[in-house]
Known about the structure:
The protein is an alpha/beta fold. It has a domain at 6-90 and 160-236: 3-Layer(aba) Sandwich (Rossmann fold). It contains ten helices and ten strands. The chain has helices at 46-53, 75-81, 98-104, 119-125, 127-131, 142-155, 172-187, 199-205, 223-228, 230-236, and strands at residues 6-17, 20-31, 35-39, 58-65, 68-69, 83-86, 160-164, 191-195, 208-213, 216-221. The strands form two sheets. A six-stranded mixed sheet has the order 6-7-8-3-9-10, sandwiched between helices. A four-stranded antiparallel sheet has the order 2-1-4-5, with helices on one face. Helix 3 packs parallel to helix 6. The protein starts with 5 loop residues before the first strand and ends with a helix.
Amino acid sequence: MAPPDAMLEVRDLHAYYGKSHILHGVEMQVGEGEIVALLGRNGVGRSTLAKAIMGLVRCEGQILLRGKDVRGLRTFEVAQAGIGYVPENRDIFPTLTVRQNLVLGEKRSRSRQKPRWRLDDMYRMFPRLKEREDTAAGLLSGGEQQMLTLCRTLMGDPDLIIIDEPTEGLAPLVVAQVGEYLKTLKARGISVLLVEQKQAIALDISQRVYVMGHGQIVFEGTPQQLRADARVRQEWLEV
Length: 239
């Protein structure tokens, strides 16, 4: 299954932590308005790929956003170019309120009169954030902090969002809310690269799937093709 016109294209990407060579020639694409899942066991390089795209680790190769190479840009420049990033550590400002965190994430743009996303949009997706609007973010539960991180990134009006392990440690109800959030992004034309370990949610909402092993892509296909490929699942995904 060929992706739509590429929003993000990674070509022959190698990444390093010090002298350790983590990614070995990764090739992948995320199309316009597409949700792509990146699966794999812990330690295979999935989070490193996300960080490499965001300019957080040393890498070689090409990282193309709408055909323009953003490799080598500083992280804030990558964000300004249109890539949002939700790290797995739920990066929030703990002493600021929920509302203040969201407002800080808002993109100031002269090119668009009306932003695509407003506070009310965030509160509709996650009503709990509205209830906790004046609460310091550091006092939120883990699930609430994840909701806040997802929404604050979205307030930056990205064209592509990279989300690293968004459902880790969350209750099933919150996991379901995160799934609806991702479907909302697709409906609004936002591209998503979803780094996940849980196959169920990833295969349910994605159009295409990559599986990573030993710093390389070992499978590319549709969720249906991955479900039908017992060998790949046994060798690269199942514990």
